[in-house]
Amino acid sequence: IEKNLMLPKGFPSERPWARFYVKLYRAEGLPRMNSSIMANMTKAFIGESKDLIDPYVVVTFFNQTGRTSTQKNSADPVWNEQIVFKEMFPPLCRRLKIQVWDEGSVNDVTIGTHYIDLKKIANEQDG
């Protein structure tokens, strides 16, 4: 199937496999309020207020997804984790999607989304 794909002009028909490493270190200044439904119900019925979120990061690259661990009760989480994607080089996908999520007991909520253009962080010779 790979050989039947229509490749953009300038892409070699035979491409080697490569590993793409995404290192996630930390986040700063995440919102302190926990907006999950359970947090609001707990505050209303019991009076407890959990002000900090439980963040984790999801990285998407060419239909592949990786996730960090959840850092409990933190507005300034530190992960120091690495996600590895395996894809042909040069990749047809030209950007990474990075999302920070708040893990909730009922449902998770997206805090923010950012796209990184690979051309802006790649060497000129790397395609």
Layout: helices, strands, pairs:
Blueprint: E1 17-26, H1 37-45, E2 55-61, E3 64-67, E4 78-88, E5 95-102, E6 109-117, H2 118-121
Antiparallel strand pairs: 1-4, 2-3, 2-5, 5-6
Descriptive account of the structure:
The protein is mainly β and 127 residues long. Helix content is 10%, strand content 39%. The protein contains two helices and six strands; from the N terminus they run E-H-E-E-E-E-E-H. The protein has a four-stranded antiparallel sheet with strand order 3-2-5-6. It starts with 16 loop residues before the first strand and ends in a 6-residue tail after the last helix.
> What fraction, in percent, of the residue positions are helical?
10-25%
Say what oligomer this is. Answer: single chain
| Whole-number mean pLDDT | 81
Q: How are the strands ordered across the major sheet?
A: 3-2-5-6
Give the N-terminus to C-terminus distance in angstroms: 23 Å
Largest sheet: 4 strands, antiparallel
Structural category is mainly beta
How large is the radius of gyration?
19 Å
The best one-word shape is elongated
